[in-house]
């Protein structure tokens, strides 16, 4: 499922420093020649791909980026210092477009790949440059050139880190709405969601992940009941499944949450067998939703009974997606989980093992 995260940013390279107008002034040298230095070049702006980011969420916090200007030249032939370049880190796979012309500037597919998106302005020339046989004391200098300014659109195809799983009407789409800017349809009837939808959850700079909402599953889905199970393949590459459960299915006098949960697990196993996927091996957290419709003491009792009946060993969360009660804590834990997973995947530091046969003197 291709979902494109987008961000609009503007970049401005540094202006060049101005050239200096100056003449040598020293004792015993009454008519010193010109000694005005050139201005420094302005800093350029680069985008660089890094594997530490997986969404464009950070660009919702900072939208404008500016590199430093060059310093002006000065007397004694001193050139102005160049402005420092600015390198903006973007996720691998970011496509960079000029927002005005729609031109594709770069497709940053490799780690550390870098592209200049705004060139720093050239420094101006000091008056020394204009000295000639006919003009020994030029007063001419030039100004630094302005750095490029550009509006950019960044696009990134993202994959879901977390998948929402559950019966129809459990509140999956409501949860996605509560924690991201995505606006999937929510309604009080089964099969409101017909297509998978993704949302970026952003918890601050450098902390974001992607959640996928898919249509609800029902018993027999793996045999084609309801909307079938085809959408489960979208969850195959996620790291974590959130199993969303309605704490008090409306109008269902004999609500049996444990049974509801087993139904979904059964379908998950069926699907994994059929498709050769290992969805049933993914980590799964229980997210008991709609806690606002029961009393707190009932909530705790229901959850305790449920965990005991299922012999559930994994994490359990109680939330109200509609009032956003508990959703922040859930997202924080997901972020920590994903960060820990990423760390575990990083190659281990090289360890050198001493050669036991080496001479030891
Ligand atoms: N009281 C209450 N109602 C909720 C809560 N979360 C969702 N709902 C309601 O439950 C109904 C179903 O919500 P959806 O988010 O559409 O459920 P879904 O799981 O996406 O359903 P499908 O797309 O059909 O699979 C809607 O009427 C929501 O307003 C909650 O925390 N509390
Ligand atoms: Mg839905």
UniProtKB/TrEMBL annotation:
Listed GO biological process terms: ribosome biogenesis
One Pfam family here: GTP1_OBG
Protein residues bound to GTP: 166-173, 191-195, 213-216, 289-292, 320-322
EC number: 3.6.5.-
Bias (Gly residues) ranges: 33-43
Predominant place of localization: cytoplasm
Secretion signal, residue range per the UniProt entry: none
Compartments reported by the entry: Cytoplasm
InterPro entries, A to Z: G_OBG (IPR031167), GTP-bd (IPR006073), GTP-bd_Obg/CgtA (IPR014100), GTP1-OBG_CS (IPR006074), GTP1_OBG_dom (IPR006169), GTP1_OBG_dom_sf (IPR036726), OBG_GTPase (IPR045086), P-loop_NTPase (IPR027417)
Region of interest (Disordered), ranges: 25-44, 120-147
Obg domain boundaries: 1-159
Gene Ontology molecular function: GTP binding; GTPase activity; magnesium ion binding; ribosome binding
UniProt function note: An essential GTPase which binds GTP, GDP and possibly (p)ppGpp with moderate affinity, with high nucleotide exchange rates and a fairly low GTP hydrolysis rate. Plays a role in control of the cell cycle, stress response, ribosome biogenesis and in those bacteria that undergo differentiation, in morphogenesis control.
Similarity field: Belongs to the TRAFAC class OBG-HflX-like GTPase superfamily. OBG GTPase family.
Subunit description: Monomer.
UniProt-recorded name of the protein: GTPase Obg
Species this protein is from: Arenicella chitinivorans
Gene label: obg
């Amino acid at each position: 499922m291709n979902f494109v995260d987008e961000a609009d940013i503007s970049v401005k390279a540094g202006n060049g420093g101005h050239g200096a107008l100056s003449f040598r002034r020293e004792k015993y040298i009454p008519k010193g020649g010109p000694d005005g230095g050139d201005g420094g070049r302005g800093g350029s702006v680069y985008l660089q791909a890094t594997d530490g980011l997986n969404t464009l969420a950070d660009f919702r916090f900072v939208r404008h980026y500016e590199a430093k200007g060059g310093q002006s030249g000065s007397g004694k032939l001193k050139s102005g210092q160049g402005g420092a370049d600015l390198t903006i880190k973007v996720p691998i796979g970011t496509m960079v477009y000029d927002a005005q012309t729609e031109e594709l500037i770069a497709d940053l597919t490799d780690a550390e790949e870098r592209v200049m998106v705004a060139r720093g302005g050239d420094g101006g020339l000091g008056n020394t440059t204009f000295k000639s046989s006919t003009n020994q004391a030029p007063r001419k200098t030039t100004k630094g050139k302005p750095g490029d300014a550009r509006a950019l659109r960044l696009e990134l195809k993202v994959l879901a880190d977390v998948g929402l799983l559950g019966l129809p009407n459990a509140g999956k789409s409501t949860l996605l709405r509560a924690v991201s800017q995505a606006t999937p349809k929510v309604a009080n009837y089964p099969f409101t969601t017909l297509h998978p939808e993704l949302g970026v959850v952003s918890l601050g700079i450098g902390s974001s992940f992607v959640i996928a909402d898919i249509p609800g599953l029902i018993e027999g889905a793996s045999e084609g009941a309801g909307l079938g199970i085809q959408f489960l393949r979208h969850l195959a590459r996620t790291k974590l499944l959130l199993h969303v459960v309605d704490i008090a299915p409306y109008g269902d006098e004999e609500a049996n949450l444990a049974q509801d949960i087993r139904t979904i697990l059964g379908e998950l196993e069926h699907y994994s067998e059929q498709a050769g996927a290992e969805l049933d091996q993914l980590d799964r957290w229980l997210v008991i939703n709609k806690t606002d419709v029961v009393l707190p003491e009932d909530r705790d009792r229901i959850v305790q009974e449920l965990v005991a009946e299922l012999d559930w060993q994994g994490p359990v969360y109680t939330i109200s997606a509609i009032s956003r009660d508990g959703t922040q804590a859930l997202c924080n834990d997901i972020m920590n989980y994903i960060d820990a997973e990423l760390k575990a995947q990083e190659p281990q530091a090289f360890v050198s093992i001493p050669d036991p046969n080496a001479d030891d003197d």
